[in-house]
Amino acid sequence: MSSLLSILTTFYLFCLTTALFTTYHCHAREKIPHSLILGLTRSRAINLNTQKSVVSVKKPSESLDMTEPLREVRDGYLISLNLGTPPQIIQVYMDTGSDLTWVPCGNLSFDCIECNDYRNNKLISGFSPSYSSSSYRDSCATHFCIDIHSSDNSYDSCTMAGCSLSTLLKGTCTRPCPSFAYTYGGGVVTGTLTRDTLRLHGSDPGVTREIHKYCFGCVASTYREPIGIAGFGKGPLSFPSQVGFLQKGFSHCFLAFEFANNPNISSPLIIGDLAISLKDHLPFTPMLRSLMYPNYYYIGLESVTVGNLSSAVEVPSSLREFDSLGNGGMLIDSGTTYTHLPEPFYSELLSVLQSVISYPRANEVEARSNFDLCYGVPNSSNGITLLDNIPSITFHFLNNASVVIPQGNHFYAMGAPNNGTVVKCLLFQSMDDGDDGPAGIFGSFQQQNVEVIYDLEKERIGFQPMDCAAASASHGLHNT
């Protein structure tokens, strides 16, 4: 406890010295115009202690795509940002559980506290504003600066920046936006708001979309956040908002882990008309409006069924509605790896699964991992792979939108087979007790091989089981 207190005290002093003021936030088809098709690469490193938690405050004429090879960093889906003049390529997480886009600034000067696993990772690149002729600090008077400092105090951002009274009265102060701090469930970043050109490259040679004056965080110091993030929330700072598709929508189809080490294929992320057109036949669940965190995507979980059991596991009302303070609902979040469920519902689901699974428990794996239900499952007989008898798990969201969690997205093999047996663990986790915010989180691992459609215009989220590798190839994101 004393070492943890020392770390937190050090970072508190670090925040005071690096940020003047801080703010905290909860995390062959016809071409259709006004759409972007981007490539997401899968980062596979099952690090059981690094999943992000978000329970605390944090006009193109052609379809475009952007594909980057896989980088072995932390678990998540990476999107490449082409920033600056001349361009600098920075890989960051695609995160529906936050708004701000930020990148590490300076390969040598970027400092991350408690990021020892990444200090020697030469694949993590930083952005250098001094090398870009189009880069400049954002002004204190812009709506982006006001937004990122909106929860600081009653003073406006230009007052915080030290503007003179005369310029404040005239609205003519051009001092830079004060430094900020942005918090996630497991980390903090501090930096400055920066503007530069963002380029999106098309699949057709010579097709490029440029977003001038794109606003992002230029971050020099972080705590447990070694890689940048592209926030896909609904706030003004978010990627969809700045690219101009906030009133349309986007969709993604996350590749399974088996493609994690394949640099020739990436998950399709589609932004704009193509993402939501011709999708009305799919099951959609309404987005719930959170007064506490209005910029993030909440849905309501109505029930859960296991296998062929006739009765569903009872779901608490907190997973489909908010309390008087705005807590509750289920957050759908690409930046949280595994699905998190509240107690006692989580334990009740474990009990139902135990009652229908007859394989022996792998207690030693459970003891050294963060997973609560692991089994030794027969893997082969005379070299023939066997089908296991692990039951399916189906999530039933509001408005009869059901999602059968694809095979391999609930119980996952934790290693290679040994003596004809492979250990599979349930990749769900319980929510931390006593935290404000969402009652549960629908994580990215359980969204693999499912097309998830964010229809922002109609405020709904749709689901469609899909072979995401085939979808990647259909969009030209699979290099053979």
TrEMBL record:
Keywords: Aspartyl protease, Glycoprotein, Hydrolase, Protease, Signal. GO terms for biological process: proteolysis. Residues 77-464 form the Peptidase A1 domain. One of its GO terms (molecular function) is aspartic-type endopeptidase activity. GO terms for cellular component: extracellular region. Residues 1-19 form the signal peptide. The keyword Glycoprotein applies. Belongs to the peptidase A1 family. This is Peptidase A1 domain-containing protein. It comes from Heracleum sosnowskyi. The lineage of its organism: Eukaryota, Viridiplantae, Streptophyta, Embryophyta, Tracheophyta.
